[in-house]
Design a protein that fits this description.
The chain has 91 residues and is mostly helical. It is 66% helix and 0% strand. The protein has four helices and no strands. Helix 1 packs antiparallel against helix 4 and helix 2 runs antiparallel to helix 3. The chain is globular.
Amino acid sequence: MNEPTLDDVIEKLQQVLEGKISREAVSNWAEKVSQCFESESSLSQNDISIWKALDILRGVDLKDSPKDYLHNEADIRNWILRFNAMIKSSE
């Protein structure tokens, strides 16, 4: 499995906003790909940023009630902005 990037994380969030993928599928993807980092004893600063972003994605499917998600579309848009800023600052 290839290590995920912040671009991958942003793409998944964008797909959620566009209704192309479910929040549950994104959470499951984040859980699966984060395992490549959890087995590493020393992470680079970039890896730590990606690992933290994946941690956020693992919670994208949390519900506030049986019908409502804890994190709304504005939260997702803010995460996209935040992750884009992280990419720009690392260039």
